[in-house]
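Ticket 4471: requesting a sanity check on a complex prediction with zinc ion. Repro inputs:
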Amino acid sequence: MSYMNRLKTASFDDPTAKLSQERHDRLQNPPAEPEAIDNPGVKMGIMTYLGAEHSSQETYKAVRKGVETCYPDASPMPTFKHTESIIEEYTGVSPIKYNMCWGSCVTFTGDLEHADACPECHKSRYDPFLFETTGEKRARMFKINPPEYMIQALFRNKESPKNL
Ligand SMILES: [Zn+2]
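Returned C-alpha cells:
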C-alpha cells in the first residue's frame, strides 16, 4: 500500500499506530476528574522530573540522593523510572517508539516496518558494530508523545484552560 493511501486510511486500529487496547480505550474514554497528588515525595519527584526535563537521569538521581541525605524523615522521592510511570499513569501520556535510520532519514514504519536498511542512505537499520560483535539487533529509537493524550491531560486540571 502506498504511503499516501496509508495516510488516507489511517485509523487508531492500524497496527502501525501501536496503540494497545488500554491506550485505545483511554483515548476514547479519558478520565475527566482531577486527580490530586498529595504525597510530598511524589510531588517532589514529579517537579524534579519536569524541571530536569533537558538533563540526564543522573541529575534526577543526584537531587533524589540530596533529598534523602538532607531530609531522611521526609516522604521518600520515587526513583526516576517510578516517577515516569506515575506521570504516565496520571496523564496517560507515554511515548510511542519507532525504529529510525541512524542518519535520521526515515522511521521504519508503514511500508518500511520490516526493512533491514534505510531506502535513502542504505545504512543498516541495526547498529552494525553491535550486530557483528554480539548478534544483537539494536536500532535507533524515535519517540513520539501523542498530542491527544497531552490535551486530555490538560483538561483534567481546572487551571489549564486559564493558560490557553
Ligand atoms: Zn538513512
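Notes from triage: The helical segments are 3-8, 21-28, 40-51, 57-70, 80-91, 128-134, 147-154. Leaving this open until the requester confirms.
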